[in-house]
Amino acid sequence: MNVHGMLTRLALVVLLLAPTAASPQTSPGATLSDFITHASRLLREAADPREAWQEVQRLGGDLFDGQPAARRTLGPAWEQRTEPERAELSSMLGAILSHAYLEIARARLPRDRPPEMRVLAEDVTREGTATVRTSFHARDGSDVRLDYLMGSAAGRWRVQDVVIDGVSVVENYRAQFARMVRTSSYDEALERLRRLAFSTSAGVTPVVAYFGSGATELTPAARVELDRMAAWLAGHEDARVLVESHADQRGTVAGNEALAAQRATTVRRYLVGRGVADDRIGATIRGDREPVCRERSEACWAQNRRVVVSLSP
């Protein structure tokens, strides 16, 4: 991709970013406009597009408040954690949510034209919270609803959650964390969040490779994503990755474990074939123990047949 193309793509992402820091007198909607102006100028004047993108990511990290997400994620258990534990979880969730939002925005935005984003409503409460409701034309021509839930603290507005087409990003991660605690332990669930936060802060998105029913072969889409990870690893020779392999809930437990193991081997061999040393790749086999979806339907099972490749701290 040439410099112009990269800047254009980054600018499209920026137009969906939520507001950055603002004074208490500035409304959330006005903060959004200020942020777009700032980020667009940064991208337009940057000599190095990669450095510009890193700055956009930094701004995105600053505007997300991870503490409300952490409180919702833990529920009553929040009061049982120490202050250092709360601070760590809040920091991790802020980084994860910011990066997840950027990736969702980039995937939905049109590539050939600026998005036509509209502010539909702005509801500010006396308690220092606000909801900014927006809509934009997606890549497929449909209208996508995107609502920012924000809070004002320490003299600035920050994003506490983003609801996309009625789906809360925070709630998605809260549900995943709860499932991990139920199927393993709090410490193991926290360790997986650490790996995910480490990957996002390092600037590389975890790869998710999906598989057909009973299949162990990589799809073309999975190869593209694994090529992206291999290229990043080639420039970061000290980095290691963890391969987590899953199966859907059909069949026997032993059969699903074996199928997940074969998929992990397929992914490992592909990365090695792309120049990643075998000793830089760890693996863990989850089988059918950690589904992301529990409905009895092919659409749901397809989400569970996956291998996730993320950085290891």
Structural description of this entry:
- By secondary structure, the protein is α+β, with helices and mostly antiparallel strands.
- It contains ten helices and nine strands.
- The chain has helices at residues 3-14, 28-45, 49-63, 66-74, 83-108, 169-183, 186-202, 220-234, 253-273, 298-304; strands at residues 118-124, 129-137, 143-153, 156-164, 167-168, 207-210, 240-246, 281-287, 306-312.
- The strands form two sheets. The chain has a five-stranded antiparallel sheet with strand order 1-2-3-4-5. It has a four-stranded mixed sheet with strand order 6-9-7-8, with helices on both faces.
Index terms:
5-stranded antiparallel beta sheet; alpha+beta; 4-stranded mixed beta sheet; 313 residues; disordered N terminus
Protein topology:
Layout: H1 3-14, H2 28-45, H3 49-63, H4 66-74, H5 83-108, E1 118-124, E2 129-137, E3 143-153, E4 156-164, E5 167-168, H6 169-183, H7 186-202, E6 207-210, H8 220-234, E7 240-246, H9 253-273, E8 281-287, H10 298-304, E9 306-312
Parallel strand pairs: 7-8
Antiparallel strand pairs: 1-2, 2-3, 3-4, 4-5, 6-9, 7-9
Helix pairs in contact: 1-2, 3-5, 4-5, 4-6, 5-7, 6-7
